[in-house]
UniProtKB/TrEMBL annotation, chain A:
Annotated membrane topology: Multi-pass membrane protein
UniProt record similarity statement: Belongs to the cytochrome ubiquinol oxidase subunit 1 family.
Main subcellular localisation: membrane
Membrane-crossing segments per the record: 15-38, 58-79, 91-114, 126-150, 181-202, 222-242, 318-343, 355-378, 403-426
Name of this protein: Cytochrome bd-I ubiquinol oxidase subunit 1 apoprotein
Origin superkingdom: Bacteria
From TrEMBL, chain B:
Top-rank taxon: Bacteria
TM annotation in the entry: 12-37, 58-77, 83-108, 120-140, 165-189, 201-221, 237-256, 263-282, 302-326
Subcellular location: Cell membrane
Keyword terms of this UniProt record: Cell membrane, Membrane, Transmembrane, Transmembrane helix
Major subcellular site: membrane
UniProt record similarity statement: Belongs to the cytochrome ubiquinol oxidase subunit 2 family.
Topology in membrane: Multi-pass membrane protein
One Pfam family per UniProt: Cyt_bd_oxida_II
GO cellular component: plasma membrane
Name of the molecule in the record: Cytochrome bd-I ubiquinol oxidase subunit 2 apoprotein
């Protein structure tokens, strides 16, 4: 297989695996923070137990997040040495800052996890959430900044093959950074909330410990509340992204939408099958003029088509499906949360009806698939560039031998880690009743009565 | 912009973090190994409590020292990404896989309802293999194993595998881990007032101190064979290496006499600091001999300035946080002795 493709598959597997744990790592702290807040405020040990149990599972996922994060950090130099040699000159700053943010988070997470019972005033323990949330979110901000730089490089000038007038701050605050940071952070919060909502729904469906029902209903309510707010923010972020791509990265938008002719009143194409020879899309759902509207809030917006972009700079057209899947899965989660609240507030139906619980359950896994689809869209949509307009992926790959064996080894590693991690988490919570944990932690709960 | 010597600032900061990593990672790696060894030899009841109490809250922090170092070195000296990135594809991947197994299985095992011996084995044994594989980077940086031709940079694996210098450094790394770790655990157990665990760790420490003395002298001799230039410049700093030997001997003496164990561990840290900085200073100006010279490979000035500022701000944030972590888990008498339930 060709070296560039091998390198890309290695990086894609690492990132595809890491992003699951990174998303959880960025999103869960805020959920824990909310739950501990509710618990202390309402003097309700069920919320506190939730925070503690989630934190316990979180230690396992964060470990995998840390090690896979270490892998990607080093793999960038191992697989793409030329990119890092160049990137180091311009974009090292946010990478460096990310390490500090994570360092900060790791220290306080260590303290947080082992000091539940060490403070007389529970708010002191709650305060530890703040550096954790700040640290994990800032990690996401800085890493997204690096990725944004690859899409919309800035902060330097090119003079005879040399980069001059380097401005690290301008590189860090490159044009796409705001839109992408907003999108990444909002979706991480959203996905974490829906994943925990899925677990609550699953526990209610299985109903293994009947005394836990109230606990899981409360968990469902909190996670759906966080979910619906962050899903709304995500929709807003998606809208900004479309407008941003239209202005700054038209080739990505065009490839995403199989949009060939530059025109106003452009249609939004959902799914379908592309006939590349004739530039025709069959079996698709078309929303007339919607692409123009999404790109510039007006049907008169002229959307650049692929025919006006040099052919060797076309991103792969398969990203159309990733885009559609991302939107559909994300919207599904939003819809489910909306449904939950409509039924709860405005109808007399039971919002915990088993059929509904199945719908809620799906929101978590589908949100995570939306994250995956979104990153495949973002990364493949940047092709053929590693730094858009300046360096191609094919120019950056290592010339060392052995990429094949490296690929196989890491795939085996991810399979083993993924399997063991799931196994440990299932073991941890499958046979453990939440009310028993409450009894254990706080000496109250159904068992204590 | 100010006239700052960024090539020296960068390497000083990075070397200091690498030193920090050598200390905390040695404690961590060794503790994992001793934990497994105690399981195998039926001493688990006696010592595992002490090991777990220390390891649990700090293991992630340890890993960040390492990440900090490699992100920092690519930031300050981007050429390292190219030369070391290309030549270390295979050894680097092996180290990453070992680090991943160790970090994950540590967390899996400490979270699992029933800890497993096989998982303890994984993080115990990787604890010795990781320092071995990481020390290869320092070996390679001495030059003689990497060639640059028309096809780019190549690592001569055969040369590396049959190099006595490489193997000496690998053994030095492993012995150092066991030596530092058992020294720290002796001190930690004595703080916890756990006499029997303290005696066990002390015994392990004394066992590993002899090979430590031998291998550190041997490393010098093989450096002389491998890179005579570096060996000669190291002789200019003979007093640093002399101090290192002296502090080691005093530390071993104190452990032997069971006296002032806190001071004894500080002496171990000093012993390593003298040797580590002596090695580092005498190696300058090269990061990777002869390809990466700090004077020609340092990043552009605006990036170096930005990184330095961020580093200072970062320290302002981190030092109080690290102090809090240490106060809660290492210097807190109640926690160390296992009586933290009372709260405060």
């Amino acid at each position: 297989m060709d070296e560039v493709l091998l390198g890309r598959i290695i990086t894609a597997s690492t990132l595809g695996f890491h992003i699951i744990f990174a998303t959880i790592g960025v999103g869960i702290p805020i959920v824990i923070m909310v739950m501990e807040f509710l618990g202390i405020r309402k003097k309700d040990t069920q919320y506190l137990t939730m925070a503690r149990r989630i934190a316990k599972g979180f230690t396992v996922t964060i470990a995998v997040g840390v090690v896979t994060g270490t892998i990607i950090g080093l793999q960038l130099s191992l697989i793409w040495p030329d990119f890092m040699r160049l990137g180091g000159q311009i974009i090292a700053l946010p990478l460096f800052m990310e390490v500090f943010a994570f360092f900060f988070e790791a220290i306080f997470l260590g303290i947080f996890l082992y000091t539940w019972d060490r403070f007389k005033n529970p708010w002191h323990h709650w305060l530890l959430n703040i550096p954790i949330v700040v640290g994990s979110t800032l990690s996401a901000v800085f890493i997204t900044s690096v990725n944004s730089f690859m899409n919309t490089p800035s902060g330097f000038e090119l003079s005879e093959e040399m980069f001059v007038n380097i401005d690290p701050i301008a590189a860090m605050l490159n044009p796409s950074v705001y839109v992408r940071v907003f999108h990444v952070v909002a979706t991480a919060y959203m996905t974490a909330a829906f994943i925990l909502g899925s677990i609550a729904a699953f526990k209610l469906i299985k109903n293994k410990f009947q005394k836990d029902a109230e606990y899981h209903k409360k968990a469902l309510k909190v996670t759906m509340s966080i979910g619906i707010v962050t899903a709304l923010l995500t929709i807003l972020a998606g809208d900004f992204s479309a407008k941003f791509l239209h202005n700054e990265q038209p080739e990505k938008l065009a490839a995403m939408e199989w949009h060939y002719e530059t025109e106003t009143h452009a249609d939004l194409v959902l799914f379908g099958v592309l006939d590349e020879e004739n530039q025709e899309v069959n079996y698709a759902l078309r929303i007339p003029w919607a692409l123009s509207f999404l790109s510039g809030n007006s049907f008169d917006t002229e959307v650049t088509g692929l025919n006006d972009i040099p052919e060797d700079e076309h991103p792969p057209l398969v990203i159309h499906y990733f885009f559609d899947l991302m939107v559909v899965f994300g919207m599904y989660a939003f819809g489910v949360a909306l449904l939950y609240f409509i039924i709860k507030k405005f109808t007399r139906f039971n919002e915990h009806h088993p059929a509904l619980l199945y719908l809620y359950f799906l929101a978590g896994p589908l949100s995570m698939m939306a994250i995956e689809a979104g990153w495949f869209l973002a990364e493949m949509g940047r092709q053929p560039w590693i730094i858009r307009g300046y360096m191609r992926v094919s120019e950056a790959v290592t010339n060392a031998d052995g990429l094949g064996i490296v690929l196989v080894s890491f795939i085996v590693l991810y399979a083993v880690l993924g399997f063991t991690c799931s196994y440990v988490l299932v073991k941890m919570f499958n046979n453990s009743s939440a009310e028993s944990s409450r009894e254990e932690y706080y000496g109250e709960g159904v068992d204590a009565k | 912009m100010m006239e700052l010597n960024f090539e020296m600032i960068g390497i000083t900061v990075l070397w200091t973090f690498l030193y920090g990593y050598v200390i905390v990672a040695s404690i961590d790696f060794g503790a994992g190994f001793f934990n497994y060894y105690a399981m195998e030899t039926g001493q688990h009841q006696k010592v595992s409590h002490i090991i777990q109490r220390y390891l649990s809250p700090v293991w992630e922090t340890t890993n960040v020292f390492f990440v900090f170092f490699f992100v920092g070195i690519v930031g300050f000296y981007p050429d390292t990404a190219y030369y070391l990135g290309t030549s270390l594809l295979i050894p680097g991947s092996i180290a990453l896989i070992l680090l991943s197994i160790r970090g994950s299985y540590y967390a899996f095992n400490s979270s699992a309802t029933k800890p497993r011996k096989s998982w303890a084995f994984l993080y115990g044994v990787t604890g010795l293999l990781i320092p071995a594989s990481l020390s290869i980077v320092l070996v390679i940086s001495e030059g003689g194993y990497i060639y640059e031709d028309a096809g780019g940079v190549q690592l001569d694996i055969e040369e590396l595998l049959f190099s006595s210098y490489a193997w000496t450094v690998v053994f030095l790394a492993i012995i150092l881990v066991l030596y530092v770790s058992s020294g720290f655990l002796t001190y930690y157990a004595s703080k916890a007032k756990n006499k029997s665990a303290m005696e066990t760790f002390r015994k392990w420490f004394l066992i590993w101190s002899l090979p430590m003395i031998v291998i550190s002298q041997f490393t010098f001799l093989s450096l002389r064979e491998h890179n005579f230039e570096h060996f000669q410049s190291a002789q200019d700093y003979w007093y640093l290496f002399g101090l290192s030997l002296l502090t080691m001997l005093i530390a071993i003496f104190l452990f032997w006499k069971r006296r002032n164990l806190g001071l004894a561990f500080i002496l171990i840290m000093l012993q390593i600091a003298f040797a580590f900085y002596g090695y580092g200073i005498s190696k300058l100006p090269y990061i990777l001999y002869p390809f990466i010279d700090i004077n020609t490979s340092v990043v552009n000035e605006s990036m170096a300035f930005a990184l330095t500022i961020v580093f200072i701000l970062g320290l302002v944030l981190l030092i109080p946080s690290l102090y809090l972590l240490l106060r809660l888990f290492i210097f807190d008498k109640d926690y160390v002795e296992g009586r933290e339930e009372e709260g405060y």
